[in-house]
From TrEMBL:
<dbReference type="InterPro" id="IPR001753">
    <property type="entry name" value="Enoyl-CoA_hydra/iso"/>
</dbReference>
<dbReference type="InterPro" id="IPR051053">
    <property type="entry name" value="ECH/Chromodomain_protein"/>
</dbReference>
<dbReference type="InterPro" id="IPR014748">
    <property type="entry name" value="Enoyl-CoA_hydra_C"/>
</dbReference>
<comment type="similarity">
    <text>Belongs to the enoyl-CoA hydratase/isomerase family.</text>
</comment>
<dbReference type="Pfam" id="PF00378">
    <property type="entry name" value="ECH_1"/>
</dbReference>
<dbReference type="InterPro" id="IPR029045">
    <property type="entry name" value="ClpP/crotonase-like_dom_sf"/>
</dbReference>
<protein>
    <submittedName>
        <fullName>Enoyl-CoA hydratase/isomerase family protein</fullName>
    </submittedName>
</protein>
Length: 266
């Protein structure tokens, strides 16, 4: 990815062996989201989603914080904030959508507090690894605001409407074990094993049939808007199209050769 500009002020990005490692490293306190960081996140998300050499994306925080939400120090606390808050939320939403629609797995690593916008970004991962000393917090209501970043879309789909209402209205911190039991995250790991587990999951996903993964992600999400006949029609088209990939040829040959397939993501 020699043509990829990684000179970001609020992010760290490395790419190796098909995995893009994106670290939130905000110039604002507590890894808070500022306008420049939001713009950089959208730039990185769209480029990584489109780059076929990247077969898995990881997103994580730094220094024991994932993201504590928007940088409130940049606002005034009255209705004059509406234009700036609208702009920040819109850019965040474009980023979340880019990760959500990426034709490859996106793994979020929550290694500290994830509140507000950080909470929303955590929910957007295809898989979420959470350190056992981290926590999730909806947090918006504490300053009289409503959820953004797709949080009100994902919460009822992940935990059900009744539980979603409890989480946003009561707004208690959610520890790692409870987050797993609710279905908000994929797994909890001891903090000292967090880096290794995140890397191992990303490496495993990056070695898989990338195009099939991306198409299956799309089928799962779009199923919410279809009835069963419509979903099965989409499955028919998608599985037929998958035969046009090199990974299908490799998987087919490996199956009859009684060996593990070596997928290339094409």
């Amino acid at each position: 990815m020699s043509d990829f500009d990684t000179d970001y002020e609020n992010l760290e990005l490395t790419v190796a062996d098909g995995v893009a490692h994106l670290t939130l490293a905000s110039t604002s306190n507590f890894n808070s989201l500022n306008p420049t960081m939001a713009d950089e996140l959208f730039d990185a998300a769209t480029r990584l989603a489109d780059d076929e050499s990247v077969r898995c994306i990881t997103v994580r925080g730094t220094d024991g914080v994932f993201c504590a939400g928007a940088d409130l120090a940049l606002f005034d606390g009255d209705d004059s904030d509406a234009p700036d808050l609208r702009s920040l939320a819109s850019t965040l939403h474009d980023t979340v959508l880019a990760f959500h629609q990426a034709p490859k797995p996106v793994v979020v690593g929550v290694n500290g507090v994830a509140a507000g916008a950080g909470f929303s970004m955590a929910l957007a991962g295809d898989a979420v690894v959470m350190a056992d000393d981290a926590r999730l917090e909806f947090a918006y209501g504490r300053i009289g605001l409503t959820g953004d970043g797709g949080s009100t879309f994902w919460l009822p789909r992940l935990v059900g409407l009744r539980r979603a209402k409890e989480l946003v209205l009561m707004d208690e911190p959610i520890d790692a074990d409870y987050a797993v039991s609710l279905g908000l995250v994929t797994e909890s790991v001891p903090s000292e094993e967090f880096d290794d587990r995140l890397a191992a999951m990303a490496d495993r996903l990056a070695s898989g049939p990338t195009k099939a993964f991306g198409a299956t992600k799309r089928l799962l999400v779009e199923s919410y808007g279809r009835d069963l006949p419509g979903q099965m029609a989409a499955e028919t088209d998608t599985i037929a199209n998958a035969t046009q990939t090199e990974d299908y040829e490799r998987g087919y040959a490996a199956f009859f050769g009684k060996e593990d397939a070596e997928f290339v993501g094409r």
